[in-house]
Amino acid sequence: MTGGRPTGAAPSLPAVASVAPGLPGRPWISQDWLDVVFLHWRVDVSAVAPLLPAGTRPDTMAVDGTDDGVTTWVGLIAFRFEDTRFPPLGPLGRTGRIGDFVEVNVRVYTVDEQGQRGVVFLSLDAGKLLPTLGARVATGLPYRWADAAVRKTDGRVGYAMRRHGTHLRSALDVRVGPVITEPTALETFLTARWGMHVHRAGATRFWPNEHDTWALHRASVVSLRDDLVGAAGLPFALTELPPDSVLYSPGVTTRFGAGR
Asked: What is the pTM of this model?
């Protein structure tokens, strides 16, 4: 990895805020994201840039919290979805247990031509078929149906999944550590992402979201085996290396606005 900012690179943006800016309109969907495990590896922007939709570029931050223009991040994120609801539909918008499932996704970090920072999901594996199909139709996100499960014991959280119709698997187990009272600039950069960039019907849209500030814990990997990151087009050997950042959160309730 080279140092310094490349000639002609975009100027640095303001620091990522740990507090959501608020949705520009009424939320169309709300979900609880629980027992969230964040594993992250740092990579050169050249590994990520070819995978991004038009109008976006890799968002960059070095390990020390400065923007070096060349370091971006790959995330393997596992969590439980619960209590999915569609506020515009009132009481009829609650999905009940149909909307409760485990998800494991691969994501990278982006900024668009308007300076909006977000994430791009390279894959999302969900543990129920109906939510998988519904999310693909409603958002255009690359959801896949998988067998997925979570196991939570005293001080540890583990996830395991297998994508249907393939040999692809992901299994991770982390030990939860102390609460982080003051997240670093990098920890905020990796977790406080207030939107997603989605390419659909020939255009890249930004879907804003909001939730309370993450309650983060430091964590450590007990075991990890993953095929998803390599299958998403990233270096296959990446998840054979120890993650550069391991975090855990009990969760948040998140709300998404309409894409624009």
From this structure: 0.92
